[in-house]
Amino acid sequence: MNKYLSFLILSIIVATSSALAQSEWPTSGWTSTTASEVDLNPKVLSTLDADIEQGKYGYVDSMLIIRGGKVAFERYYDRDYNSIYQKEASTPGPLVVRDPTGPYNYFNSWWHPYLQYGKLHTMQSVTKSVVSTVIGIAVGRGDFPDLDTPVLKYFESGSVDNVDDKKRHMTIRHLLTMTTGLEWNEDYPYSDPRNTAATMQVSPDWVQFTIDLPMSTEPGKSFQYNSGATLILGHLFSKATGMDLEEYAVRYLFKPLGIDNFYWKRTPFGLIDTQEGLYVSSRDIAKIAYLYLKQGMWEDKSIIPGAWVDASITPFVSVTDNRSVEYGYSWWLLNYEYKGQERRAFAGIGFGGQYPIVIPELDMVIVFTGWNILAEGPRMSAKEGIKRILEAVSEP
């Protein structure tokens, strides 16, 4: 065999091996590697691990780091939430809603943070990012209306209070981007009864409560975080598609990604809880983040249109005055500095410390879960999580 032919055969083998490696997807489970093999400093990660274990960031339940499509670091932290929140669990208040043994008592360890002491962790408002994903799939399949469709189209005439021109101008896009213009204040801690979301949760019909509110500004003008807006999206989804959003998610998102173990709670009125109701494992919420890292592709098939992914992680509205935090289609955009350059990560963010984070330039997905639900005390923020992981990135 001459040298040229040997080289040619070797090239084909390498190319074939590379193609096979690129076609590996975590549908049946993530492949594991070591931190060092993906240019992460294990000593730096061990320091972060120790800080979490010792309580520097309050109650963190898991840390998962995926780089190059492989799990490079994974830790889970045992917390005795029966003891930690025992007093609060039996004390009436905004976070102990309805039946104190039910799913809306946020101190009830049968329901939070792990579902019935299993591996499924509450995602809280990361659910909103998943809902946006499902809507993007439905848009791509032609099952969902144009985003500039007025919201009131999906409510019977005369069934909504405080209707004015501002409310008539509210569209689906405004719901996705938290720019509804509705009179809503979710800036108070969730333990504070002045938080509009806390008031909503004691009402019988959360969608009706939200859509009935008066308008404070013209839609699309400014960011105002509003959990009720995503509940309205759930209502619109069922009206527009004739299908429950959970069922649609199972068929077109969860099954293709190999997510077969989840729980999605419902509102007291029976609607799927699109604002905070999803429970999945850290590894499975990482799959949805990875889907976005891969521009909506999975096993060489388009699950979400690439245009939807781009629109979702493109700033629609600024959350902070300095634009360090922005918002797309129910995804948070977090600007950070790395090696003297400004970069952008994107994330889902959920009450208590739920953070699936994507750092595109580093081919990285990070997941933190936790249950820091009181206003006081230390906690891990998404930006702090990014900062600490970046400290571990080594030069290849």
Question: Roughly what percent helix?
Answer: 25-40%
CATH topology: Beta-lactamase
State the fourth-level CATH superfamily.
Answer: DD-peptidase/beta-lactamase superfamily
Kindly report how far apart the N and C termini lie. Answer: 36 Å
Protein structure class:
alpha+beta
Radius of gyration: 22 Å
The 3D shape can be described as globular
Mean pLDDT, as a whole number? 94
Give the tally of β-strands. Answer: 14
What is the second-level CATH architecture? 3-Layer(aba) Sandwich
**Domain count:** 1
Low-confidence stretches: 3-21
Quickly describe the structure.
This is Serine hydrolase. Helix content is 34%, strand content 15%.
Can you walk me through this structure?
This protein is α+β, with helices and mostly antiparallel strands and 396 residues long. The protein has helices at residues 3-22, 42-53, 81-84, 86-89, 126-140, 165-168, 172-176, 196-201, 206-212, 227-241, 245-257, 282-293, 306-312, 382-390; strands at residues 31-32, 60-67, 70-76, 121-122, 263-264, 278-280, 297-298, 301-302, 317-318, 325-327, 332-338, 341-347, 355-359, 364-370. It has one domain (36-390): Beta-lactamase. A hairpin with a 6-residue loop joins strand 9 (317-318) and strand 10. The longest helix has 20 residues, at 3-22. The chain is globular and about 60 Å long. It contains 14 helices and 14 strands.
